[in-house]
Structure formats: structure tokens, C-alpha cells
Predict the 3D structure of the following.
Amino acid sequence: MGDEQSSARPDLIGCTALWLTALIIDASGGDAWFTRLYGAADGFAWRDHWFTSDVMHRGGRVVSWLLFGATVWAVWRPWPAIAPIPVRTRAWWLNCTLLCLALIPILKYYSLTSCPWDLLEFGGRASWVSHWAFGLPDGGPGRCFPSGHASGAFGFAAGYFALRASVPRLARAWLVMVLVLGVAFGWTQLMRGAHHVSHTLWTAAICWTITVVSFHATRNWRLATR
């Protein structure tokens, strides 16, 4: 329990760093700068490319489902290395993952923010409107904030927290995998014109914050002997 208490501060620092980075990108116009690297008046050249569309987008969904299957298996049929993890911690692992994977698509569904490929600048019909301008439509179809595809990686952050006390090497490997996939998924969608950089950053920040807060808030319950 002491180890978990001592880890609360760096975990929260990580949350703060993600939120600040996302806010800086928002405030500095970073979205427009990054998006213009790949978009032009006639759209996005990488939008339907076989690598970004088939391998990284559709293939990424398959990878996410495989990760979910691995998570369920690890929780309910743990192999010997992670069997010592308390049952309640394993239950938290699955439930927190489900919450992250469900919440981002829900937020995205109700968002009025359209994707970059829907913007007038890139051949669409929507205008640049901040995703913080709640209730103000941009003239496009909306439903593009935050990044749902990136949640298929960042939504699995709970595995790192569940594993790190008992199997730290596996926990670090899990975290690296989540970060690498999250960045890869986010950058792919940037190249395709499906999301701005901030969309991915906010997905990471939301998933990490939910995971950190719930992990430490449930510490006494998870580690209770009965």
C-alpha cells in the first residue's frame, strides 16, 4: 500500500503534463500547423492510402480487440506471473479499461466538432471552430472530438497500474506498448485528416486521468483482504 501512496504524486504529475500539453496545442494554433503538414485544398493524400487506411486504421481496430481479449484473459484466467495481483485490482483493471473505451466514443458521438477533412480549407464545408465552443456547430457533420481511434490504445493504460507492483517489467512493457500504439494511431489519423493533434492528446489525457484517479481512489477497496 505504501508503494501505491508514494506513486500518487508522479502519476498526477503525468496527468498535469498531458493536460498542459493539450492546452498549449489548443492555445497556440498547433492543430492547424500540424494538420496543414498533410492537408491541402484538395484534401488529404494519405486519407485512403492502403497503409494508413487499411493497415493502421482497420488493422489498428483488430489490434485493439486483441488487447481487449488479452485484458479479459489476464483478469479472469491469469497466468502464474500475475496471479498474485489481488482479485479486486484485476477487477478494477477490466472495469477501468471498459470505462475508458466506452467514454471516449460517447464524448465523440455528442461532439459538434468536425474532422479536419470536413473543413473548408481542405475541401469540406465546415469552419474552424474550437471544440471548447460548446453548442456552436461548425457547419460540418461533427462527431470528431476526442479521438476514438487513439482510445483503442490509451484506453488500456490501466494494465500498467495493475501490473506494476507485482511484475514491474511487464508493466513497463505494457505502458510502452500503449504509448507507442497511441502515438501511432493518433499520427495515422492526423495524416488521414481524421483528427487534429489535440484530439489525440485529449484522449490520452482523459484516459490517463480516469485511470490514475480511479486507481488511487479505490486503493483501500482493492487491497482489502475481504
